[in-house]
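Task: fold both queries, return tokens.
Query 1:
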Amino acid sequence: MHAAIFGGAEVIVTTDRRAGFAASRSLEAAEVEILTPAEFAGNTVAFHPDQGFTAIMEMSTRRKNPPEPPLIILEILRDRYGMQEVYHLLRPRFDE
């Protein structure tokens, strides 16, 4: 927490709700936002959809054994990691 404040972080990305980050007055005073990985990914893709699409395509090219098409990767992000916003933002781009 102190490293985030002293380092000037705007966000802490974590799934650890027990750590008390959300209730921290110090983080609130420093305007450090606490986000889950899914929230962070959703925000990032919302602001940079072209890069999000490119990232999915790149992940697909790296998946060799077994190969996974981009839509499968997008579905994994949605289903396994709760990234519904990422899915809804990027899914229409695969129909273009």
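Query 1 returned. Query 2:
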Amino acid sequence: MIKKLTSHLDYGMFAEIALLIFAAVFVAVLVRTLMMRTETTTRHAMIVMEDAQQHYQQQQQKEQE
């Protein structure tokens, strides 16, 4: 019964729908990224550096103890 049901399905339509969903999400992320303020972008870029500085400071404090 399942073989009969799946043999009549057209999977091409699902591929087109998946492509449209992907394109819509991609465009939404692109627009949000381009509309982001410079301050926010700079703050996001500094997250890694802040974490590295905190880790380095903690290591120095442990070595001094």
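Both queries returned. Flag for query 2: Residues 38-65 form one domain.
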